[in-house]
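Q&A log
Question type: sequence-to-structure
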Amino acid sequence: MAEDDLLKKWLNDELTDAEKEAFRKREDYALNQEIIEKAKHFKASQFSRVDDFESFKSKYQESRTSKSTNWIKPLLRIAAVIVVSLGIYATFFNNDLVEERTLASEKTSISLPDLSQVTLNAETQITYNADDWSSKRQLNLKGEAYFKVAKGKTFDVITEKGTVTVVGTEFNVKARVNYFEVICYEGIVKVSSDSITRQLLAGDTYRIMNDVFSEDKTNAVAPQWTNNRSRFKSVPLKEVIHELERQFNIKVTFKDVNTARLFTGSFSHSHLENALAAITQPMNLNYNISSSNQVLIHGKTD
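Response status: OK
Response body:
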């Protein structure tokens, strides 16, 4: 029987007993078996390492330099398909990374695998590995979220600006562009960002805004946004308006306005015009709303 046909039948598990015996006696049997066995153990993490398969291919070709290589190519193609298929399967079917996100003007509450509770503010995203959760309670946060952590092993919230570490407590993390804030409402929270590390007790606030660090106190027992109200203390108007945009899914532009002015106050998420009035009136500003959810904030004219 031609070598090509015998190899093909072996790969398809179609050899008779006599053919199997003949195939085992071939000098390349051990190498053929090695290709299949190694292909079975490729993982998703190895999928990007082209050198694994290429070096294996080179080894095979070197062993056959004295013979025709026409029949080797089908085997290499089959082995390559096995490698790629197993890698894709591991990537898409064995990936336990969980992602939760909210859109503009949307909030949601979810339970983590240990029954810790997380409430996400508008335009927020968290990701975590469900498979590793029992040994490593860790998630990544972009945006703002309120956590009620079940007691257990260390719980880490990782952001681009810093890391928050707790065991069992209630706290709020806000990680926006140029704005990182952590408020502890119960228990103890450890916060680290660059060289600034603090241990927060209930009522303590940790904030880095535009690269400036500050600490404060609060008497609140939970973040106001979970009750559909955003509250601010000495925050630049620009940051306040960013939050307004997220809560109402609008776009705000300014004319003759100093957006670095500090604002202290709050606005409700239930009605846009009331929210705009709560922000603009204390700062002696006006606003205009267009029909396409565009808002202009400008200084008052005589």
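Response note: The two ends are 100 Å apart (CA to CA).
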